[in-house]
Amino acid sequence: MDTTQPARPNRGSGDAATIQSSIVRSACMVALLSAFPVISTAAAPAIKWERRGAPSGKPLIFVPALGVPGSLWARVYERLEKSNPVYVVTLAGTDGLPPGDPPHLAATIHAISELIAAEDLKNPVLVGHLMGANIALHVAARHPDRVGAVFGIPVVMNRPARSQRQAEAERIVQSYLGSEREMWVPNMTVQIKSTVNDAVVAQALIDMLSKADRDTYARTLGEMMVDPIEDILPKVQAPVLLSIPISQITRSGNMARQNEQLSVVTKTKVDATYLLYPGLPRCDVVPMRNVSLFPMIDAPERVAFAIERFLKKLDDPKAVWSDTKRPPTTPQTEGEASN
Q1: Domain holding 297: CATH number?
Q2: Distance in angstroms (rounded) separating the CA atoms of residues 232 and 8
Q3: pTM of the model
Q4: Side by side, which strands form the sheet with 240-246?
Q5: Do residues 121 and 139 touch, judged by C-beta distance below 8 A?
Q6: pLDDT tens per residue, range 166-175
Q7: Number of domains in the chain
Q8: What is the per-residue pLDDT across 321-332, written as a single tens digit (0 to 9) for each?
């Protein structure tokens, strides 16, 4: 039986004093937010969560990407919930939920930490996509004794030098908030269609993002830009698997040439992941080829299978893990994580 928890007091809402202290500690984030004033309203919970699945087993917490609901993972967790308790997280300002107060990243990290404590979860596995992967790593770094593992489909994109991140964050926020509010969905439609080749995946994302709060999306994206995530990664003691989506190479008559291009793209993205997520002491980086950036939509069976393999490895006391201290000579292929 599915159990929905939409409004439990003090669950997922975060502690106001703790969140406020995070604001004080993060000077660059305060500067970013002060550049774009927020109209204060009653603070909404930072997350909404739903418990599903088996009554016992290794708990799985699914954290979505920015702007999309936790149900994006549905075709993945519906397979895994037969033998695992599953927690599906949706962030404030997403899927029609009221927006919370900034800074959104700090509030979300705190709320998921509260969820783990409130439900008394033993070594849960955090499963995160894009921003959700970053959030999962933050929670694991903050609570190394409470998080069992992290499975992430991470953000593999260029990150500016630290000295440039504040300015880039302000530019990103302004690019969204500087336009008329009614242009939010049309602008996102153009952006998605220019980056997502699969029409079905693109339309699914457009439908979901049309229910997202524009201001929350913009400000959170800015917070991600200034987030010095690389500083906290060495504190993550739990095993991590970073699954890297590799889009399908345009088919040509020359299969050898196509395979060569795929190998080059794979190595480039895997190497970039090591540079963007350095210092993880126990981490396998494994490409997933011929999928979109949202493989839980176009290849849910493969994502579920990758998570199942990861869970089996976690149960193996003799398992051997790689790290992200330096890129490998040859990237692992899908399903070939060290063991």
Answers
A1: 3.40.50.1820
A2: 31
A3: 0.84
A4: 3-5, 47-53, 85-91, 60-63, 125-129, 149-153, 240-246, 283-289
A5: no
A6: 999 999 999 9
A7: 1
A8: 999 987 666 556
